[in-house]
């Protein structure tokens, strides 16, 4: 974003604050109509920024001070919790990996664990010997678990009441974490899954947004809503360790940080994406040792960046970052994700609420609480749809 774009956004924010009136369209519309700047497509990832450290919350030095990235997988009743050194798990893409790719990843993960004491989960159904990192296995039936399985965790795909019974049966015998991947029915099934003592929820944002029900929705929209459901489940009591894992198009640290701030605890990386990143800028075939070493360095660089972001925001713990540390220049993003508008400490919904309350207090028109709520919902819905009057 250049200075001209920033000036346009800030002038629009100032106009909004001075007038006290809800705008008819997104702030970004002013940028689109600017002949010099030209057309601009809104990307929710790019419309969100993070607030840097301030005088009241000075930054940390990530090279001299400890920045915590550790996260435990497993609720309080889980006997064998798994502790990760950073909030990432590696997926084998739900397909059969070739032996070379498996060996490349195995070598890199072992090196991370041995050299840097960095523990990452690998999600795979392969039996890998001499590993120093935890493996979680996908299963659909209890019979798929054998006494010879060397596993730290289990992942189930939700399949109705059958899965709920499976969670109960497995938890009686398996001491490690049991995670459940949900589909587009997540709104109605998550409370039942948590009631059966599952240790966490997994969402594949790409798969769900390809379903008709959530077509066109953003990954952050899904994370925010599922986190709200989990929070509602724990309303009035402390979360005993339930985690939310989000997999999908999280291919850089900026997206990881924003996803965690909105409500994810751990991000799922695909093996193919990691290997592609490690071998990028090279043409032709690279030997397995070279790719494995580059993958190791790529993950260590990611770890360093994940430490640098909370330090710059004034936090010593990565998981202290929340949506309150984010700002957006896009009205739709503010409404969907409860993020404050850039230049203010208020979300767009809060601005609408204040305007409606002020109108009700100053006018002779009497509105009860239900009418106020309906009007606020109506105005919010029209703005989120890009409509105006």
Helical proportion, percent range:
40-55%
| CATH top level class name of the largest domain | Alpha Beta
Order of helices and strands: HHEEEEHEEEHEHEHHEHEHHEHEHH
Strand content: 5-15%
DSSP strand count: 13
* Terminus-to-terminus distance: 30 Å
Please, what is the average pLDDT?
Answer: 84
User: Total number of helical segments?
Assistant: 13
For this structure, the CATH topology of the largest domain is TIM Barrel
What Rg, in angstroms, do the CA atoms define?
Answer: 23 Å
Q: How many structurally independent domains?
A: 2
| CATH superfamily membership of the largest domain | Aldolase class I
Q: Segments where pLDDT lies below 50 for 5+ residues?
A: 35-41, 385-389
Strand order of the largest sheet: 4-5-6-7-8-9-10-11
Tell me which CATH architecture of the largest domain applies here.
Alpha-Beta Barrel
